[in-house]
Automatic annotation (TrEMBL):
It comes from the Eukaryota. Its main location: cytoplasm. This is Coatomer subunit zeta. Keywords: Cytoplasm, Cytoplasmic vesicle, ER-Golgi transport, Golgi apparatus, Membrane, Protein transport, Transport. It is a peripheral membrane protein.
Amino acid sequence: MHCSTPDEPSLYTVKAVFILDNDGNRLLSKYYDPELYPTMKDQKNFESNVFSKTHKADNEIAFLEGMTIVYKSSIDLFFYVVGSAQENELMLMSVLNCLFDSLSHILRKNVERRCLLDNMEGVFLVVDEIIDGGVILESDPQQVLQKVNYRADDNPLTEQSVAQVLQSAKEQIKWSILK
């Protein structure tokens, strides 16, 4: 693991990322520091605490439980990026903006609960391209989209996957008939 004193800079800038719906229910969460909130119960309590402090606020930054939290909402979703108390808010904000802009592109600007749930595979890919184990890998949405193979004219992942499965099934049926 990594050991660092509180004042020592670290690459492990992101402690957690989570997306909640407008009732505060978890849709996606990734915790990168195993010691921070080790159990699911701890995580959900933290998320619920964060949600109750932020869902009606107009700010973009909150300080809670010794954490720096940047957040953004869209229709019925709340996006959170969590760092330590001494973490640079601008760094965390660049992660949040990258996440939001990348998802906005994948969801075709339809950043709301149902659409997010329909595209969870793509959402996880985006999060994994931006952050790896708490280290920020990318903060440019164009780079993230390129890495997850998204282009403006592509179908969303789920439609692509269904089309591929159907095509594969057609091929198998065709070959079984031809035998």
